[in-house]
Specification:
This is CBS domain-containing protein CBSX6. The chain is α+β, with helices and mostly antiparallel strands. The chain contains seven helices and three strands; from the N terminus they run ααβαβαβααα.
């Protein structure tokens, strides 16, 4: 089993997978529910909007724009709160930036040629 990590590279795990989609932090909880339902990953990556000035984005800038991953459990917990139950219309129209737990360390930018054994955790 350990030989798998020695002889395979990160790019092997991404073959046939679509580019990472971007879900804006300004979108509503309602839009997030639809996006999570359509996602094969069980969660959606939430991003700050790109600056209009930046044409090409480097790994550091991309890391800074990444907010975190929003999943169905986060949404259910938010909608089950007392204040959300009191005003359901307001809750469903809340921006996801108020729901997602910020954790930009969940995103790792790794060269596709990096061996699995050497990839950062």
């Amino acid at each position: 089993m350990a030989s798998v990590f020695l002889y395979h590279v990160v790019g092997d795990l991404t073959v046939g997978k679509p580019e990472l989609s971007e879900f804006a932090e300004t979108e509503t909880v309602e839009a997030a529910i639809r996006a999570i339902a359509d996602s094969s990953e069980g969660g959606i990556p939430v991003w700050k909007k790109r600056s209009q000035k930046i044409v090409m984005e480097n790994a550091e800038t991309r890391q800074q724009r990444f907010v975190g991953i929003l999943n169905a459990l986060d949404v259910v917990a938010f909608l089950a709160r007392e204040d959300s139950l009191a005003d359901q219309n307001k809750a469903i129209n809340t921006p996801v930036s108020e729901v997602v737990l910020p954790n930009n360390s969940a995103l790792k930018v790794v060269d596709p040629g990096t061996r699995l054994a050497a990839a950062p955790l």
